[in-house]
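Quick check before the chapter quiz. The format below is the same one you will see on the exam, so make sure you can read both the input and the output lines.
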Amino acid sequence: MTKNIVRGYYEESYPPLPTKATKYWRKSILKQIIMFFILNLRIMRIIVGGHS
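Here is the expected output.
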């Protein structure tokens, strides 16, 4: 009779941890403001293009 061996997950199964630079840019207020305006411009292009 063989026993079932339970093995843990491999290291490759876990997601990569963010670097310090990644954490900084995720929390950066300046980048968030810029991305907010870029997103709004993209949405406005779609809306204006649909109304012409």
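If your answer matched, good. Residues 19-50 form one domain.
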